[in-house]
Design a protein that fits this description.
single chain, D-amino Acid Aminotransferase, Chain A, domain 1, Rossmann fold, alpha+beta, 369 residues, 21% strand, six-stranded antiparallel beta sheet, 14 strands
């Protein structure tokens, strides 16, 4: 029996995003979890200024997270793009050292999970892990995401949204409309950002104005949501056309809400996996998770977040995260581990799902027949 061919996986991380550091942590964890008897990893680091750097193929993981940013290449961005666009070239067998089997993007936030880099991979004709261009874009833009949920008849909290020009031109009308629709307190968020960056709780008009001004530092579009006294329940979803949900988990935040500090810096928030909820509620949330995944045309993976109102246990969808945190201590892999799928096996499945989706797309006709 011949030796199994080692697959070459391009790992893309860093990026021009407020979540640059989160991406480094995710990449370090993933690189250390891969089975190097089956895979060879090629690291692609994108600096905060947008420069691409490519390293030599890895046959063992980095020993220190600082090594992730020390990559160098003779041609910088040009060299990285040359290797990336070699893709699945017809000369693949002749130049095996310049080809990639699958790209694994580990870029959180802007330019990483909003469909931007997914479009680059599509143009390069490369299989890649995770959601496609449309699902990534909808999953990043909270306003369009909520419209997709509404179309799929998935219950959600009341909300309003507006763009910066409306705020500058019609500030008083925006404030009056928000107060009439939602009241206080309410939550103000940049529409296109992840990891709870730029999110504030407003208890009065002065705080609402300050929160909107803060959110507009991160995006031109703002979304404001009603406050619901609720538990935060999450579900991991895995798959392409036949997605499967994990057991739910619960976030127990040490803060008033699960903000960036609670997620990444103070270490005081905790998780309960599986979530301590009854079987009927568990199944309802898992069913809604798959429904939401399909509503945005998800593929590969996503984490679906819900609110469960304390007063009556009513379920509301919060959001879909098409590239959730992926360290061994993140909710997404931990919920799969509890469901019976260990971290390394999860990585194997994600690679296979990327290949399956790519092969299916190759069967499509792009010209009249």
């Amino acid at each position: 029996m011949g030796q199994q061919r080692i697959m070459r996986i391009g790992i893309v991380y860093g990026g021009k995003s407020g979540e640059h550091e989160v991406s480094l942590s995710t990449a370090f964890a993933v690189m250390n979890a891969f089975d190097y008897d089956k895979y060879e990893l090629v690291p692609f680091f994108i600096t905060r200024s947008g420069e691409w750097r490519v390293g030599e193929p890895l046959h063992a993981p980095f020993q220190d997270i600082a090594e992730l940013t020390l990559l160098s290449s003779s041609g910088g961005t040009v060299r990285a793009m040359e290797l990336l666009f070699a893709g699945l070239d017809s000369s693949r067998e002749a130049v095996p050292n310049k080809t990639l089997d699958v790209i694994f993007p580990l870029l959180h936030g802007t330019n990483g999970e909003d469909g931007t880099i997914q479009g680059l991979f599509e143009m390069a004709n490369l299989p890649y892990v995770g959601a496609g261009v449309l699902a990534s874009s909808v999953g990043m833009d909270k306003a369009f995401m909520k419209q997709a949920f509404a179309h799929a008849d998935i219950p959600q909290c009341k909300y309003v949204h507006f763009i910066v020009s409306e705020w500058k031109r019609e500030r008083e009308q925006v404030l009056l409309h928000t107060e009439a629709e939602l009241g206080y307190p309410c939550f103000v968020k940049p529409a296109n950002l992840g990891s709870s960056v730029g999110i504030s709780k407003a208890r009065n008009r002065a705080e609402l104005i300050a929160s909107i001004e803060l959110a507009l530092q991160y995006d031109r579009k703002v979304i404001v949501e009603e406050f619901v006294d609720a538990r935060e329940i999450e579900v991991s979803v895995l798959g392409n056309d036949d997605p499967k949900p994990s057991v739910p988990g619960e976030i127990i935040s040490a803060h008033e809400f699960y903000d960036y500090k609670a997620k990444y810096t103070d270490g005081k928030s905790s998780m309960a996996i599986p979530a301590p909820i009854d079987s009927e509620l568990t199944e309802r949330i898992r069913e809604l998770a798959v429904k939401a995944y399909r509503a945005i045309d998800g593929s590969g993976l996503a984490r679906i977040d819900f609110f469960v109102r304390r007063s009556d246990m009513e379920v509301f969808i919060n959001e879909v995260n098409t590239l959730p945190g992926f360290t061994p201590y993140s909710m997404y892999p931990l919920m799969w581990k509890e469901t019976g799928l260990p971290y390394q096996d999860l990585l194997d499945q994600l690679i296979q799902l990327a290949l399956d989706r790519f092969e299916a797309k190759q069967q499509l006709h792009y010209e009249s027949v």
